[in-house]
Amino acid sequence: MTAYDLVVIGGGPAGMMAAGTAAEAGASVALIEKNQRNGKKLLITGKGRCNVTNDCTRDNFFANIPVNPKFLFSAFSRFSNRDVIEFFETHGVPLKVERGNRVFPVSDRAADINNALIDFCRNAGVRVIRDSAEKIIAAEGKVSAVETESNGIIPCGACVLATGGMSYPLTGSTGDGYRFARELGHTVVKPKPSLVPLVIEGRECAEAQGLSLRNIAIKVTEADSGKLIYKDFGEMLFTHFGMSGPVILSASSHMRDPKKKYRISIDLKPALSLEQLDNRIQRDFSENINKDFGNSLSKLLPQKLISVIIKRTGVPYNTKVNSIRREQRLALAGLLKNLDYTVSGFRPIDEAIVTSGGVSISEINPKTMESRLVEGVFFAGEVIDVDAHTGGFNLQIAFSTGRCAGIAAAERMGYYSYD
């Protein structure tokens, strides 16, 4: 089999960025991807729109990385969010900035981002091998080859492990990289779901299944102490098991203590104070003064939430609006400002957007992404024990670490400094 300067395992965003970067510097590069198309998971990110990065300040970027942010200082400095924006626009993908500084392609097509990375690798001379990697071969503390299922042993001077985590296994993220790392002597922090839908106690969420709420605010507290651990504003979704959607996924990454119970409070009307909301309810009631309570809330609430809210108030559905007392009306307003639920668990790791855990950062050089244990082995992307909130931060991690690994691998093989 042909020998290469570098073999990259994994054709996702981190792997393609690493492969194209090293090849552009002059290295001979093979990229091993077991799917028939690169970037299978990338194509479904951001509901198929692909939230490429976040156009925030450096400080805000690191504030959105709850796990090992300092490890990323060097990689981000070398290839920042501004660099990612410039990269894709230079490679023919115009970008736009939306709410929360989230960056998307103007086309709203994740395929455009994926195709830009595929073209980047192709134009740089990367050879793509459709195969499954079986083992990284190393001797005397140095990588020498990658063994594959169908193409046998591929000799190489360096290897980038960019296999992803364990989320969305149908896209190829099946945890293979953790096994490779362990076989090389690396410590793997136990993988667990991050950015994952929440299971909620009771049946209320199932009653509202399929309802998407926009422009709501949430607060997450510890059930026992009442301590606030997270708050956010945006969009969420009720499901048959509980809750999902951007603000819920971000909230899940803050619920890291399995011994603690958590509660989520939803403010359905964050733009209104309690007094303003009460005034609004009084106006609605005045227009429906002879109607049943249950038929008076259609302007205030989505249809799927009306029965949920009515049950919570304790006011019978067929109570005439003109007989509702002031304290009942105020209780309704308070409920709309604080609709609270108890979290009973998380959905499985294969439903998570991101895997938390991975190869221990203590065994990786943060300036190069190279293993401190095996010379010539580099890591990039979700396989590393770093993860972030939603908003484009996790893809930025993939691009920054991929770029860093590609540069360092090319330099290790004797090619000119990429900088």
Model description:
There is one protein chain. With 419 residues, the chain is an alpha+beta fold. It folds into two domains: 4-192 and 355-412, FAD/NAD(P)-binding domain; 197-346, no CATH class. The protein is built from twelve helices and 18 strands. The protein has helices spanning 13-24, 58-63, 73-78, 81-90, 110-124, 176-183, 204-207, 246-252, 274-287, 303-313, 326-337, 393-412; strands at residues 4-9, 29-33, 53-54, 95-98, 102-105, 127-130, 133-139, 142-148, 153-161, 188-194, 198-200, 212-222, 228-238, 242-244, 262-267, 339-346, 354-359, 377-379. Strands 1, 2, 6, 7, 8, 9 and 18 form a seven-stranded mixed sheet that branches. Strands 11-14-13-12-15-16 form a six-stranded antiparallel barrel. Strands 3-5-4 form a three-stranded antiparallel sheet. β12 (212-222) and β13 form a beta hairpin. The chain is elongated.
